Structure of Palmitoyltransferase:
Amino acid sequence: MLARHGGVFALTLGLVLATSALFFAFDCPFLARHLTPAIPAIAALLLLFVLSCLLQTSFRDPGILPRATAAEAADLEKRIDSMGTSTYRPPARTMEVVINKYVVKLKYCYTCKMFRPPRTSHCSVCDNCVERFDHHCPWVGNCVGKRNYRYFYAFILSLSFLTAFIFACVITHITLRSQRQGFLDTLKATPASVLELVICFFSVWSILGLSGFHTYLVASNLTTNEDIKGSWSNKRGSEFANPYSHKSILTNCCAVLCGPFHPSLIDRRGFIQPDVGTPSSPKSEVPSFGAKSDTSMYVQGTKELLRTAALCLSWSNPREAKRKRTIPETTAITTTCASTLQGYATAPAPLPRQERGESCHAQGEASPSPHQEPAHSAVLWV
């Protein structure tokens, strides 16, 4: 389920594993000998829990809603169009539902072609609608939503405990060593412990702050998206009060963290089902408006070309255009147009000598002057 931030997820996993590996290699042996062997055991349990929650958050479906099919989208468009009149159409595609006596607006998603259920939002990174959308976390490389929020909360909470535990153990290790051989000599002798100390010092504050913020959200039954947008008011009895809150911290925590586990709605096989279109109309039916067959378009194109050729002839010799055209002239024009339709690559077929003589005799005065172009030249120019 990783999105575009797979590299950031690898960085998160690498930092956790690298810091823990340095701790187990350079600090745990000394602390186990001089304090208690329980320190490596506690650190190992915390590390396994952190890795399990991280992988569950990253690779689990956050609650993606499948997009509407072509038939469902068409049916919904008909319903939306029927809501307006011939002269008026609703500008905003929204629906109103009542949840715990509060009116909640449902927005239409133009990408997924459906009305989003309550607390659902479209993630711009994953390009999917996610149920109970909290936020998109690049550190885990996935959206945080209805189906993986409990794992995300457990991950940041356990990671804060692991970071604080390693930070305290490293300080204890450096303090005990400095009592024997001085502070500067201890820092030179344990560079790995110094590196762990720096990493934990700069990360523990942000992780603890994030854990505290999400603890507040869990106790209030809110999401990060709703809290940032200010969707609900904290005042009881307000018109915009949170309709999903159970008015109790313990009940909200149980509803968010211990609620029923909902099944995934997406097809993990990865096959896209072809859209079933409307059946094609039989050949005997009347064609739809605007549909043209190849034959009709060819005939229409031929007529337009003949009309253009006639206009060119009339412009080249206006006196002769008033007279009645003879059969050989029409034959020459038709032959020229046919050769033009074949790609302008072939010249018109020559006429026999007798017909050519009759044609020249019949045209008489209509023969072009040296300053005029022949008829087929005008057709080729068009």
